[in-house]
Model the fold of this input.
Amino acid sequence: MPAQSRAETTETSTSTSSSATSNATVDTEQELVGNQAIIDIVEAENKENTDAQFDPDKTGIVHVGMNKYARDEANTLNRANRDRGGAIGIRNQRVQDEYKWQGVTYDLTQIEDCAKFVATLGLKAQTAVNAAQWIADGGSEAKDEMAQMVRVWGEAELGIRKMDRVVLSGHSVGSMIWGDDNGQIDFDTITELSAIFPKAVAGVKHLMLSACYTGGEAKMAQYPSMFPNLESVWAYHDSSPGTWTGAMDHMKSWEGATEEGDDASKVDPELAGNARKAKNVSTWNVADGYQGQDPMNLYEIRNQVSEGATTFNDFFAGNVEVENTGTGPLRDYYNVVQRYLSHPDAGDVATFETRRDVTIRLIYWGVVRGKFADHYASQLTDAYTSMGVDMPDFSSMSRGDFMAHWETVKDGEHEVVDLMKRGLHDLSPEVIPSTWV
Done:
């Protein structure tokens, strides 16, 4: 098999049939637990692969990419790892939440199609039920990537694939990855997948997170719950480079240091050399522990967070507007909050995670307001018509203009007032998803 072809894609068919193989069997003596609709399909269509054989062509790096250029990152790793299995790329499909596999197109917004897809993978019956439910429970526009993860993790669980190196790539605030115009996968969700496929994740020795704010010392503590036998982690305690502005150079350096048989201590921040954002790299390995940004004195960083609250309040109230999303006082405050959350002894974590999430939405107010106006256009138009009030152009409003407008409508009883309160006013992730920033 040519090495380049090992950068496997998941676009294997153009069929639009939604049927699946139906001549399979399942151990009927097993008492399955879970959603009955899934159980019914698994009982009817699942056939456990009891004679799975290792495929020597399935030994490459697993790259899970949520952003536009995920293919390019996977291809870079494939070339770098050409003689050792290449790389397999898990990425956004042409149609969100749809997956084409073995001549069948599955609509993963339908729980039945989640079950029918998983029933083709040769898993044990209860594992199949759990995996189908995991996909079904996934967030909007992330189910296509999640289905691919189930397929690859499932191959490793069955012993068909070797999975010892994993890359998670996308935007992040430290607790998930997401992509532009794509979905979001929380790290807790990946931990749930690990519980479904314990043999698969037991083989993972090296993890790279090409994602912002994933490399603080406290953040490193969350990754063994996903992959319990890790020997090294590469991540970023601050912003990470984009695909074409450093990320692929970093990936090649990481790949070279994590080949089978290499000492895990080779994974350290110095590997990034002089590449862009090399100073933001943090690592952990079994020999040297955490290496990266030194945690500040907890008293000092608490004071910085407290002092920065005035800055946050000014921007939240619209008294000051963001001029540059990458720099400035609000970005500095955001970095302080992130650094606090990365401290091993940080307290009241939930409160500061909320502050983190609101602050990043304030930083990207110019993007958030436009997506809010577009996504909720019909509700807003109907509401303002019924209230007999002229609707402003939310897509171009400054934060200050919105807050002034909010004072004129906040006492209204229309349901859209609550939407605006939770959305543009509070900047709640329930209304303003991370994928908008």
The chain is about 40% helix and 10% strand. Residues 298-363 form one domain. Residues 1-28 have pLDDT under 50 and may be disordered. The two ends are 41 Å apart (CA to CA).
